[in-house]
Request: fold
Amino acid sequence: MLNIVVCVSGGGTNLQAIIDGIESGRIRNTKIKAVISNNAGAYALKRAEAKNIPAICIAPKSFAGREAFNKAFLDKMEELAPDLIVLAGFLVILPEKMIAAYRNRIINIHPSLIPSFCGTGFYGLKVHEEALKRGVKVTGATVHYVDEGTDTGAIIAQKAVDVLPGDTPRLLQKRVMEQAEWVILPKAIDEIASKGKGNEA
Ligand code: GRF
Reply:
């Protein structure tokens, strides 16, 4: 069984795709041990609670400083001891110690075809605004391993999505989520579960 912890900051539609994927059997041999958010108001936490998945908030602003937050975050992760950490719209920089401790066991979903429209400052609607501004005809989403950089880890999967005439950033964001993110993230988790620890009976 592949035990995963999903880290979220917002609406949680990618988390929902993972939950639905496990329930439907599209994601095999996988269990969500907990969902962690930096944002107490994240609707993603409500999605976890609705499925009786431990929903944990570790908010930076409730700690004296970044060091104290990092320690609390790391301690919780060590307690949960997942096989895989999934960043699904998580807007907090991971502690370097966590990246080192979970080398090649942290994956992230990014709403563009990396190396386009990624790196510092490229998150949420901004990614799609820049894609429309540049006039690309195709965009999409990428699942990649997380390393010390921003969106620089090895690419695991990508899926292209057409940019259509009249697209607004919101329309494009919705299409990339529906046609790419919610497809390749569950698929990547299923493949990791089938390849790695998930193989055991
Ligand atoms: C998604 O667009 C994802 O690609 C990006 O942040 C957004 C999270 O959305 N990393 P949600 O919280 O999964 O709905």
Notes: The first strand starts at residue 2 and ends at 8. The mean pLDDT is 96. The longest helix spans residues 169-195. Residues 8, 10-14, 44, 88-89, 109-111, 124, 177, 181 surround 5-O-phosphono-beta-D-ribofuranosylamine (CB under 6 Å).
